[in-house]
Amino acid sequence: MKYKTLRIILFLLLPASAVFGQHASRDSLFREQAVRYAHNRYVGSTMDQARIYNGAEYIGHPPRIKGHPYLDSLWQVGSITYDGVVYDSIRILHDLVNDVVVVPHLDSVYRIQLQSIKVSRFSIPNHTVVRIVRDTAVNNGLRTGFYDQLYDGRLKVLARRTKTIQTNFVQNTATEEYLSQNNYYIGKKNGVYYPVKSKRSVFNVLADQKRSLRKYLRENRIKFSKNRETAIVKLTQQYDASSR
Q1: Are 192 and 141 in contact, with CB atoms under 8 Å apart?
Q2: CA 233, 235, 237 angle in degrees (round to 5)?
Q3: CB of 168 within 8 A of CB of 201?
Q4: Which of 21, 94, 98, 163 lies 20 to 30 Å from 8 when distance is taken between CA atoms?
């Protein structure tokens, strides 16, 4: 029934483009807008039955743990591609302990843990997160999971952000807190991803431009030790720019 609704909307909208038959570019733009409008109408009209709201209830973590387990401590509004459908203006949490994506149910009474296998990507302010499936022939060095896409050029830079729960004992009293860890990867054109941590490891991956990249760091006063993430991204961008 949902797909029938989408076909009806497209059928009603697209014929109107004949008015612009003598202006191909205008007709193309109209068609693009019509398809986008139909998509939004389709998603909106089926929201109550949307597959994105059919996951298991998200239980979360005990509130006694110091800190928070998420990519961002608050709900962030963004878009998510779930089971091949793009949903916009969705509130999102990314649990970094369990590596799952969470959305509120329509009635906001409880939260839903999405099926990770159906989440292709999601975007929230300052983050574009993609799901990568381990394939030793292509994504060598990566585990299956969600990765923050820091740079997407001819080369790629990904961050695997995780959190663990650490238990501390003070005067025979146990307390728990979240500890964060970020692992970085540079992906080359052959599809293989290389873990990078130190300046040396980055230069080993980008070895054919090591000398010029060292000069680039000096001239731009980029301190690898102060902001490793920014330095990795800038070095990769510079490598791409110099390879054109």
Answers
A1: yes
A2: 70
A3: no
A4: 21
Own/partner pairs for 18-22, CB < 8 Å, 24+ apart? Answer: none
CA atoms within 13 A on the CB side of 235: 34
Within 10 angstroms of residue 15's Cβ, the number of other Cβ atoms is 10
Is 138 strand, coil or helix? coil
Low-confidence ranges of the chain (pLDDT < 50): 1-20, 39, 42-43, 45-46, 48
Interhelix angle 2-13/24-45, rounded to 10 degrees, is 150
Q: Which two tokens stand for residue 130?
A: 């993609």
Its sign, for the CA torsion 39, 45, 49, 54, is positive
β partners of residue 202: none
Contacts 24+ apart (CB under 8 A), 221-226: 224/198, 224/199
The rounded distance, in Å, linking the Cα atoms of 4 and 107 is 26
What HEC string does 22-81 produce? CCHHHHHHHHHHHHHHHHHHHHHHCHHHCHHHCCEECCCCCCCCECCCECCCCCEEEEEE
